[in-house]
Specification:
Elements lengths: L6 H16 L8 H4 L3 E3 L1 H11 L6 E6 L2 E6 L4 H5 L20
């Protein structure tokens, strides 16, 4: 279908397409595509959300630059890692009773 007769020709063509697209490296990560579960028309992303079932809890269908997207809002950093950043205080200390002899 792509006009390549062998796997090696297809692999070479695919590599050429990627290099042509990336060009001089000025392509940047598109958050709308990389940070979303689905991007497209509103009916499409709503269907994806419905298919996710309970896993879609908290995820929203929002309008973006290239259509609609299903995504989850960012979680606050401090809520997840707050306890790890606190000092250790004496109430977390366990004194060992070791008799050397």
């Amino acid at each position: 279908m792509l006009g390549d007769r062998t796997y090696d020709q297809l692999r070479s063509s695919q590599k050429g397409w990627v290099e042509e697209y990336l060009g001089n490296g000025d392509k940047a990560r598109n958050e709308e595509w990389t940070g979303s579960i689905a991007v497209g028309s509103r009916p499409f992303v709503e269907k994806v959300k419905a298919l996710l079932g309970f896993r879609a809890k908290g995820r929203e269908v929002i309008e973006g630059n290239e259509g609609y997207q299903v995504r989850e809002g960012p979680a606050p950093y401090n809520v997840l890692f707050g306890a790890e950043k606190e000092d250790i205080d004496p109430k977390n200390t366990y004194l060992w009773d070791i008799n050397p002899g």
